[in-house]
Design a protein that fits this description.
The complex is a heterotrimer of chains A (303), B (314) and C (575). Chain A is an all-alpha fold. In chain A, helix 3 packs across helix 4 and helix 4 runs antiparallel to helix 9. Helices cover 78% and strands 0% of the residues of chain B. Chain B is globular. The mean pLDDT of chain B is 87. Among the domains of chain C are: 72 residues, no CATH class; 266 residues, Rossmann fold, CATH 3.40.50.300. Chain C is built from 22 helices and 20 strands. A 6-stranded mixed beta sheet of chain C has the order 6-7-8-3-9-10, with helices on both faces. Chain C has a 6-stranded mixed beta sheet with strand order 16-17-18-13-19-20, with helices on both faces. Chain C has a 4-stranded antiparallel beta sheet with strand order 2-1-4-5, covered by helices on one side. Chain C is globular and about 75 Å long. The chains are: A mainly alpha (303), B mainly alpha (314), C alpha/beta (575). At the A-B interface, helix 5, helix 6, helix 9, helix 10 and helix 11 of A face helix 1, helix 6, helix 7, helix 8 and helix 10 of B.
């Protein structure tokens, strides 16, 4: 989506750490030191904290708030943020913080379904295409190219038109729209590994095709697919929230992050918090997953 | 050059056909009865069986799916994409009416994104100190993480209601175009900046840059004369995809700013499950993608002499 | 000539005193150049010789002020007598350095294939150096550029000036870079491994031309090279570097004749040269039938079979075509291997020699069925590999193995050394897990690596160590044939000689046959019983090693042999 499926093209962009040639020789496999180095990056620590909070909210919302997200208290409507109501209240007097916390459940559920669908289906297609090659590869890649020619938001919208509304359908729509991306990354990874000299060396040593696939190609190719999955998490959060904003997600009054922003639109002049605060949460979640995916990517390319 | 163009043109037609087929497959083959969807029109009511039968006959849904596909494809080849279920108007008319405003928005945002992203990338890669560079290059990751609809609403809140500089909604005049263009362009400009900055840094590290330094060429000249042009080549490849994403982004942006256009038409069509209109919009977007890519293919050989000779992108 | 210059001009063009350069990385500081002194007189060629990591390249870049990111001059002077008088380059501002670069100091880089801007015409790239220094204006710059290209020995310079880099061969591109370096008539040209990326015959022509330019213009050259042969033939002064320090410096002839430092001696003895003795001397001499050229043997297998033992590998009339992208009408193919025949007997080494693109590597891969030939027959130990079923080929792989050129890519980065060496055993289910582990340990011992490497990953080892691991893997199944595809060309010379000695020892112990692929005639001379010279997919000459080297029959073989840089060949700078 315009929101973020675009970041995939800039996968792992901010890695700009020139390493002196001697570094490679000194490199040790110490995992403990890697962990320490990760902790030395405050941005990453913050990202991990945000991600943990979001996941906690998705599974155990009661940790954060005892309030019912659907309970309306008309006399408290449209109140600004305060200690009583951290994020203020909406036009019906519902507590916005509680709605955002409970909204994490639906939004995260959709995101996880979408990413898993894309990862599993896309990786499988890419693996088959890249490893076996030939006409099958040709056919699959032509399909992938066409899918990539259609903007993913539009693709999701077409799928929703066919499947109907709801959180799960939105998730499927977002997931299917990302299959082509995963397939392409996986295929190019498989091709890269398959063409590597050490794979030919295994073949020269007499390895059968499945031994090559499972011992050499798959383990090496899964890394980049995992990194893409981590990055795709952020993309999926944005896509799911955009579709929810447009009103294709869960039925009212169940809270979702996107629909919360949409709901606040009417009161934009009088109650800024209704639009601003849920958006901040979405952005924090996306930034956190992107930062973590970059760390995963960096860690992978280092070791 | 002639062969190069002919091949590109053939590929373009192929993409259009494939996009049509894909959209058809999604809309007619995925679980969900098109007749029920058409009858429901977005309402949650149970249509009576007799009405469904009538609808099936009317839209030809009772015939084998392959037959429907060929008939619709044949009609589409003659410019007939069927009739909108909700308004009853021909899909081509619906799109034709809505297109100009959306295309203006899309290409305005494309220009803004390319200029903004390129400037940021060029400036960010110039300083030798890593600190400033890192700071500037962290802007795109921030921009790309913000939901478009939310950015639009924040702009409305500040520029329209707080400072009363620009109209919040509508299609009237250039002023109404500013905020939608900016909203739409922000994430795309971030991508342009990231990709261009990456290839700028790659190019800056390549040996021919060292030779340019060894000739005594100044850093500014190296940056603009030698590196920028070569770095632009991978970025150019992206423009087709970016245009498509911008076009799709109008669904959100036109909703936020209540602008009439393809985006609004699409949003409404999805809401009412207006299958013919959704199909038409997908093909329209594929057509824009194809045209933009054809233009890029024409520009390519001018930038990269290696393509002019081989007639193929590396 | 050298003598007179040394005596007459105490005034040096370039004097480096106590130069220290360090790189700062995330893991602290690495000192690349550690207190180097050297001097280059006017019109002199001074060669800095060393292995990778010796700091020679850093030294060159420090002089021209183009250290890579993180590099910094910590101490020392680099005084240079340019057109603006004597200046210390180590302390010069970027602005003043820029004025010197290209005008007073030229640079010829290592890899011509990537050192030109791919989207700018050749002429404009040469003209730029003149324009930025105000030595030409936009009107006459092009004419001057064409002249510079002509001076650099580029044929048809006016046409070439209109072309783009990808339309030129590697040798031509290097001439363009020489034209750029010499265009402004600088006093000093730094040549950083100027020919190491080129084929040996091209290398000779380029170096000869460079020598001519130096003589006619009186330019000084600081020549950076890992190749003692190149340095020996062309330099007045030799500076030997190791680990950031100068270990020996002096007149080239003196150092070569009477090296003082232990490292120099080692470098000299390890460097494969045409003068080095054979590592397989004393082996049984070829029988009368053996001396027939390999091509004839391949052609008449029946006759040979009667007189000599059946060869282990018999390659007959093998052809390999690769399809090329269609352009215009009709199918086009690349004839990578074009009717090649040879055979190898047990316990002997056949070397396939040729330049890049000669088809030698494809031939190697064909020989052990890693790719199928378009036509011809390949018989290994009685099995016709072309007709055999995949199961039979797989079983045959136990006795035919390969060692690749680049040990950095041929070992999986994910596995430990032990896992890598065990892999062939595991594939063929040889022994139990514990037995395989023991076998791997034994093999690692045989290739003279400490047992401690077993649990490490290949990425933690040096290039030479990795190549030993690759050899251990190749030997795991006790093969009878090992294909060595340029096994030492990615390694430093001292490591090279160790690996070659190891290969020879293993051959004697295990009665191995080697198909040895190499571009390096000096290496081949040390290790091969027979040599086949390949060019454009064909074997142009084949025979016993001594015979080929002593009396090459084919014109191309002669050219190859002449092009090998040797200490004796000081042809370009007669004293």
């Amino acid at each position: 989506m315009t929101d973020l499926s675009l970041t995939q093209v800039g996968l792992g962009l901010d890695r700009d750490e020139p390493t002196p040639p001697t570094d490679a020789a000194l490199r040790g496999p110490s995992r403990g030191r890697d962990l320490l180095r990760l902790l030395a990056q405050p941005g990453l620590v913050l990202a991990v904290i945000v991600a943990v909070l979001v996941l906690l909210a998705a599974f155990f919302p009661s940790v954060f708030t005892g309030r019912d997200p659907l309970e309306a208290v008309p006399k408290d409507k449209l109140q600004g943020p305060s200690l009583e109501h951290l994020f203020g209240t909406d036009q019906l007097g519902r507590d916005l913080f509680s709605r955002v916390v409970h909204g994490a459940a639906l939004s995260m559920k959709a995101t996880v379904i979408a990413v898993s669908l894309g990862l599993v289906l896309g990786s499988l297609i890419g693996l088959i295409s890249g490893f076996f090659g030939g006409w099958l590869d040709f056919a699959l890649m032509r399909v992938v190219e066409v899918v990539l020619a259609i903007p993913s938001l539009l693709l999701s919208l077409a799928i929703i038109t066919a499947l109907g509304f709801g959180t799960v359908n939105v998730a499927i729509a977002v997931g299917l729209a990302s299959v082509a991306r995963f397939a392409r990354v996986m295929r190019s990874e498989v091709l890269r590994v398959r063409g590597a000299v050490f794979v030919e060396a295994a073949k020269a040593a007499g390895a059968r095709w499945y031994e090559i696939l499972f011992r050499h190609v798959l383990p090496s190719a899964l890394g980049p697919a995992t990194v893409l999955a981590a990055l795709d998490f952020g993309i999926a959060i944005l896509a799911v929230s955009a579709l929810s904003f447009l009103g294709y997600g869960a039925n009212a009054p169940a809270p979702e992050w996107g629909s919360l922003v949409a709901g606040g639109r009417t009161y934009i002049t009088s109650a800024w918090w209704l639009t601003v605060l849920p958006g901040v949460v979405v952005m924090a979640a996306v930034l956190a997953t992107n930062r973590i995916s970059r760390a995963v990517d960096g860690g992978r390319s280092r070791s | 050059m002639g062969r190069y163009l002919a091949r590109r043109l053939a590929a373009a037609v192929g993409v259009l056909w494939a996009a049509y087929t894909l959209a058809f497959a999604i809309l007619y083959l995925l679980p969900g009865d098109p007749a029920e969807i058409l009858a429901a029109g977005g309402e949650n009511t149970d249509p009576d069986p007799a009405a469904l039968e009538k609808l099936r006959a009317e839209y030809g849904l009772d015939r084998p799916i392959a037959e429907q596909y060929w008939d619709k494809l044949w009609a589409a080849l003659h410019g007939n994409f069927g009739v909108s279920v909700t308004s009853g108007r021909p899909v081509t008319d619906v799109i034709k009416d809505a297109a100009p405003s959306t295309l203006l928005l899309t290409f305005g945002a494309l220009a803004a994104a390319i200029i903004g992203g390129a400037l940021l990338a060029l400036i960010a890669t110039y300083p030798r100190g890593a600190g400033l560079r890192q700071l500037l290059l962290s802007l795109p990751s921030l921009a790309v993480s913000a939901p478009t609809f939310w950015v639009g609403l924040i702009l409305v809140q500040l520029l329209s209601f707080q400072w009363r500089l620009l109209p919040a909604i509508g299609n009237e005049g250039w002023k109404s175009l500013v905020m939608p263009v900016v909203t739409l362009a922000i994430p795309v400009s971030a991508v342009v900046a990231q990709v261009l900055a990456k290839s700028l840094l790659t190019e800056l590290g390549s040996p021919y840059v060292e030779i340019a330094h060894a000739k005594g060429v100044s850093r500014t000249r190296i940056h603009l004369r030698h590196v920028a042009r070569n770095a632009a080549i991978p970025t150019l490849t992206l423009v087709g995809v970016l245009t498509g994403e911008l076009l799709a982004g109008t669904v959100v942006v036109e909703t936020v700013f209540s602008r009439a256009g393809i985006g609004r038409v699409t949003a409404a069509a999805v809401e009412r499950q207006d299958i013919p209109v959704v199909l038409g919009v997908v093909v329209f977007s594929a057509a824009i993608f194809v045209v933009v890519n054809l233009l890029i293919d024409l520009v390519y050989p001018l930038l990269d002499p290696r393509i002019a000779q081989n007639g193929a992108r590396a | 000539m050298t003598d007179t210059i040394d005596a007459r001009t105490p005034q040096h063009l370039l004097t480096i005193d106590g130069l220290r350069v360090a790189y700062r990385g995330r893991r602290g500081e690495v000192r690349a150049v550690d207190g180097v002194d050297l001097a280059v007189g006017a019109g002199q060629v001074v060669a800095v010789v060393g292995e990778s990591g010796s700091g020679k390249s850093t030294l060159a870049h420090a002089v021209i002020g183009l250290l890579p990111a993180g590099g910094r001059i910590d101490a020392g002077r680099i005084s240079f007598a340019g057109r603006d008088g004597e200046q210390d380059l180590a302390r010069l501002s970027e602005r003043k350095l820029r004025a010197l670069r290209g005008r007073d100091i030229g640079l010829i880089p290592q890899d011509p294939s990537v050192s030109l801007n791919p989207t700018t015409r050749i002429g404009a790239q040469v003209a730029e150096v003149l324009i930025v220094h105000g030595l030409a204006n936009s009107r006459n710059a092009h004419v001057e550029a064409v002249q510079a290209l002509a001076d650099a020995g580029l044929p048809d310079p006016a046409t070439r000036a209109q072309q783009f880099p990808h339309e030129l061969s590697g040798g031509m591109r290097q001439r363009v870079l020489i034209a750029i370096a010499f265009a402004a008539n600088p006093r000093l040209v730094i040549a950083d491994e100027p020919t190491s990326a080129l084929d040996v015959t091209v290398q000779k022509r380029i170096l000869d031309h460079l020598g001519m330019l130096v003589q006619s213009r009186g330019t000084s050259i600081l020549l950076i090279t890992h190749d003692l042969g190149v340095a020996a033939g062309r330099a007045d002064q030799l500076i030997v570097m190791s680990r950031g320090r100068v270990v020996e410096a002096g007149r080239t002839a003196d150092i070569l004749d009477n090296p003082q430092h232990e490292y120099t001696r080692k470098l000299l003895s390890d460097a494969p040269s045409m003068a080095s003795g054979s590592l397989i001397a004393g082996r049984r001499t070829a029988t009368a039938t053996d001396t027939a050229t390999a091509r004839e043997r391949g052609g008449s297998a029946d006759d040979a079979g009667a007189a000599t033992p059946v060869p282990l590998l018999q390659v007959s009339h093998v052809v390999k075509h690769f399809p090329l992208p269609r352009r215009g009408g009709g199918e086009r193919v690349l004839k990578a291997v074009d009717d090649v025949s040879f055979s190898i007997e047990r316990g002997r080494t056949l070397a396939l020699v040729g330049e890049s693109g000669s088809g030698k590597s494809t031939t190697a891969r064909l020989s052990i069925a890693l790719t199928a030939p378009t036509s011809g027959s390949i018989v290994f130990d009685g099995l016709d590999l072309v007709k055999a079923r995949s199961g039979e080929i797989r079983r045959a792989r136990q006795s035919m193995q390969i060692v690749y050129q680049n040990p950095y890519t041929s070992l999986s980065p994910r596995l430990t050394v032990s896992q890598i060496v065990e892999e062939p055993l595991r594939i063929f289910r040889v022994g139990s897990k514990a037995e395989r582990r023991a076998a791997a340990a034994d093999l690692i011992d045989q290739v003279a690596l400490p047992a401690s490497v077993l649990s490490r990953r290949a990425a933690e080892l040096s290039g030479g160590q990795r190549q030993r691991v690759a050899i251990a893997r190749a030997l795991a199944l006790s093969p009878s044939l090992v294909v060595c595809d340029e096994p030492v060309s990615a390694l430093d010379v001292t490591v090279q000689s160790q690996i070659l000695a190891l290969l020879v020892d293993l051959q004697a112990e295990r009665n191995l046959s080697y198909l040895f692929i190499s571009h390096d005639l000096a290496v081949v001379r040390q290790i091969a019983d027979d040599v086949a010279v390949m060019r454009n997919g064909q074997i142009v000459e084949a025979g016993p090693t001594q015979q080929i080297y002593a009396a090459p029959q084919h014109e191309y073989t002669q050219e190859l042999l002449n092009a090998v840089p040797t200490r004796a060949a000081r042809t370009t700078r007669p004293n």
